[in-house]
Specification:
Layout: H1 5-49, H2 53-61
Length: 62
């Protein structure tokens, strides 16, 4: 039985797109989760800190 280096490389390169896709999807999920927390909390942040709508947009952008 001979060692075929090309077979191992093909198997490793096939796993990389899956790993890259998983990292991208996890990052996108974290962004969506962060935005939902911010949008849910904006009314109470505005009431507690007595912020104007213009100032509240800074909270949203930060």
């Amino acid at each position: 039985m001979r060692f075929n280096p090309a077979a191992g490389t093909a198997q490793r390169s096939a796993a990389r797109p899956t790993a890259i896709l998983a990292i991208i999807l996890i990052g996108y999920f974290m962004i969506l989760l962060d935005n939902s927390v911010i949008f849910t909390g904006l009314p109470s942040i505005r009431a507690d800190l007595d912020l104007s709508p213009a100032t509240l947009s800074w909270v949203q952008d930060a």
